[in-house]
């Protein structure tokens, strides 16, 4: 028993120590300016792989090859290096795949540093491709817009749960009891069903409910909430937001590639 207690204490001590580790900081230097980013310690697989490639100089000389105003800027792909105008680029590398580290406390606010991935059909476990990355620009949302997003997402979920539990047979039975004014019998059936519906709805992982932190971020600095829970956010920009805006506002071709190349000159670890 003492050994088990000791191991538990040791385990939680290690977790606490990791949580207190200083966060790494990198500077992404481009021909349009610098962006300083911190990397999260609770996404260690992404952090460590990203740092490993940064120290190798893997991203140096690549482009921000996919730029969409009010959405994101994406770069780092090896095939973007010295790519001629008009060439389709941005193909990933299976050797850079890491398991997802999607955390509810990290979301797609403006400046979020994230890992792209292949679609669910070919990648059901949402594994990331750290051979490239994207940074969110997004836009500022009104509180009512966030409410509407929640409703649009959650109403169909609630309807499906209700249809599965409240079958036509049960509906008919409840209707009959109501017509016969048998209140006690009606409640004996209706109340447990209502409780079951509420429980299944509360436990459904696809129900959308923005946290206070999300609401504050999306209604002030902005972002792109539609991506939350779908991609790993492993860091955030802490300086250089004007550079994000400058790059995101650039004119692009039909493939969303800027007409003027946005080069990642280098990425350096400064902390």
Secondary-structure map:
Elements: H1 2-19, E1 25-30, E2 33-39, H2 44-56, E3 64-68, E4 72-75, E5 97-98, E6 112-115, E7 128-129, E8 133-136, H3 143-165, H4 168-179, H5 183-203, H6 212-218, E9 232-239, H7 241-248, E10 264-269
Antiparallel strand pairs: 1-2, 1-10, 2-9, 3-4, 4-8, 5-7, 6-8, 6-9
Question: How would you describe what is shown here?
Answer:
Helix content is 38%, strand content 18%. Strands 3-4-8-6-9-2-1-10 form an 8-stranded antiparallel sheet, with helices on one face. The protein is built from 7 helices and 10 strands. It is an alpha+beta fold. A hairpin with a 2-residue loop joins β1 and β2. Mean pLDDT is 92; it is low at 5-9 and 11-16.
Which key phrases capture this entry?
single chain, 271 residues, eight-stranded antiparallel sheet, two-stranded antiparallel sheet, 7 helices, 18% strand
Concise summary:
The protein has 271 residues and is of the alpha+beta class.
Number of strand elements: 10
Strand order of the largest sheet: 3-4-8-6-9-2-1-10
H-E order: HEEHEEEEEEHHHHEHE
Gyration radius from CA atoms, angstroms: 24 Å
Terminal CA distance: 42 Å
Query: Per the principal axes of the C-alpha atoms, what is the gross shape?
Result: elongated
Average pLDDT, rounded to a whole number, is: 92
């Amino acid at each position: 028993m003492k050994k088990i207690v000791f191991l538990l204490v040791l385990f939680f001590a290690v977790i606490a120590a990791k949580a207190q580790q200083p966060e790494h900081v990198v500077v992404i230097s481009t021909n349009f300016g610098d962006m300083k980013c911190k990397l999260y310690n609770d996404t260690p697989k992404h952090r460590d792989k990203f740092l490993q490639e940064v120290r190798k100089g893997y991203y140096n000389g690549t482009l921000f090859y996919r730029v969409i105003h009010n959405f994101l800027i994406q770069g780092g792909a090896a095939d973007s290096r010295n790519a001629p105008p008009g060439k389709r680029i941005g193909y990933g590398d299976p050797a850079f795949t890491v398991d997802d580290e999607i955390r509810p406390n990290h979301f797609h606010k403006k400046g979020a540093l994230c890992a792209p991935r292949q679609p669910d059909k070919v990648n059901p476990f949402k594994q990331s491709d750290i051979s490239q990355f994207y940074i969110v620009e997004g836009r500022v949302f009104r509180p009512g817009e966030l409410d509407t997003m929640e409703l649009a997402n959650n109403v169909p979920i609630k309807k499906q749960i209700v249809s599965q539990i409240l079958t036509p047979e049960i509906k008919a039975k409840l209707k009959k009891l109501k017509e016969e004014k048998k209140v006690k019998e009606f409640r004996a059936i209706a109340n447990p069903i209502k409780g079951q519906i509420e429980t299944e709805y509360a436990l459904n992982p696809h129900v959308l409910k923005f946290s206070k932190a999300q609401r504050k971020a999306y209604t002030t600095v902005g972002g792109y909430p539609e991506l939350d829970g779908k991609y790993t956010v492993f860091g955030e920009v802490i300086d250089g937001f004007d550079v994000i805006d400058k790059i995101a506002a650039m004119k692009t071709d039909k493939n969303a590639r800027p007409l003027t190349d946005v080069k990642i000159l280098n990425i350096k670890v400064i902390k």
